[in-house]
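Shape matters. Shown next:

___
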Amino acid sequence: MSRLAGKKALVTGGGIGIGRRIVADLAREGAQVAFTYLTHAPDPEFLDALAATNAPPALSMQLDVTDEAAVIDGVADAAGKLGGLDILVNNAGGLIGRVPLAEMSTEHWRTVMAVNLDSTFMVTREAIKFMHPGGRIVNVSSVAGQNGGSDGSGAYAAAKAGIFGYTRSLAKELAPKQITVNALAPGLILDTPFHETFSTPERQRATIDAIPLARAGYPDDVSGPVLWLCSEESAFVTGTVVDINGGAYFT
């Protein structure tokens, strides 16, 4: 029996990288999935592969998660088509650019906050209106929220740290409905647009050299914990942060 058979899931930023793998694995486990994208539209091969799973066909929608009106309408539309929500994965986010804090404009700061922290707040606020008791919320944050990140990622680190506090507060608020809320803190995850854009091969190599498990992570390393946090196996886990970094965080 698939772990998530009959569950209704919404994933933001599901067209590529970590989000794409989460969408595929949720569907493989029997969930009916709706996912959003902005610039990285899902390719036909991915949609065909989803259609071949045992779950109903996935729903994809282009959505700017920083646009409040669009989020309100988009989440309501997805929940309406799915018949409510059982799972929300807030995966959309991004570094935007590496800028030293001393040189950072207020506009850049606010853009990074909007893409990472504001989007998580707005999508979640709308999703819980349609979430069934016993639901699951997983917020994809970053190890940068714990260690401050690498050069030029101060705004990103602050936004991702904010997700941890938001996660714990929401876990308390939704506990009476048996809705769990947890966060992930991935480290170096390759095969994603983030590191292809913002991390040179030299930077990646230096990071890998400092990881106790001596390798980078990949999207399936993140998807596995998401599946667990969305299942009944983790029903007594809420308000926690799962580190996914090969031991780099504490060394």
Q: What stands out?
A: The longest strand covers residues 131-140.
